[in-house]
Amino acid sequence: MQSPEFQTLGFVTDNPSKLLASAVATGNVRGMQNVPGFDLIGAYTDPSGARLSLVRRKGREIEARPALASPETHRAAVSRLGDALAHASIILDEESSLELLVNVDDPTQYPERTAKDSNSFTLIQALQLGAICIRADVYETEEAFLAERPNDDVEWTSRAMASASIPGVGLLAPSELNARALVGFTVETAWKRTNELTGQEFWYGTGLSAVRVAFALPAKMDIEPGNVVLGTFTLTASSGLWDRN
After folding, report:
1. Where are the strands (E) in 81-238, listed by range?
2. Tens of pLDDT along 144-202?
3. Degrees to nearest 5, angle at CA 158 with 178 and 69
4. How far is residue 57 CA from its own chain's centroid?
5. Are 82 and 174 in contact (CB under 8 A)?
6. What span, in angstroms and rounded, lies between the C-alpha atoms of 235 and 165?
7. CA Rg, the chain, in Å?
């Protein structure tokens, strides 16, 4: 649990097993056992919004992945490429969509794409979308961003949301793809929250990108509403399974 995404969310530990045991002890873990294709799926949702997605295949240890609870929802057609990686077509209007690769925290809610059935998907009416920072730069305003963009020959935008692995879908093995993306957004709301499981702080907020998205940024960064953020993020998504009563 030492990847940049875990650190951003405050899940910093030298003992992952103890952290998972602590998460279970809080009572904030929801899960399902013996679901098709999995021994167990579940999620620990911290009151801060930081989330651990939990997956176990038969004969394997539980795998924990970083995720983010999000109030920002979008209509999307979603199919799964692997245990957690999914292809989400965010529906913008009747004629256009935003193609993203995301890590889902509830994999059984989406059909897995196979060579025999490459067109299957589930239409999710309210797909929760989040972005967890790997590295990013902050600009005071939109004007400052446009003045300081690194290369005038490249059409930089503060509304960027582009999955790096999208061109490889259908060409590369799922293991060669990931949910990392170039994301730019204008900060609309931001709060410094504390991960109650570890006591570590991080920024949680909402931003306007190509679509609205919840974000997590490291606590060491200085941000406020109106700032423009541009960088590399891991995109996460959920059908809302773990938030239903």
Report:
1. 85-91, 97-104, 122-139, 161-163, 180-195, 200-208, 212-218, 228-238
2. 998 887 665 566 789 999 999 999 998 898 889 999 999 999 999 999 999 999 999 99
3. 50
4. 21
5. yes
6. 12
7. 18
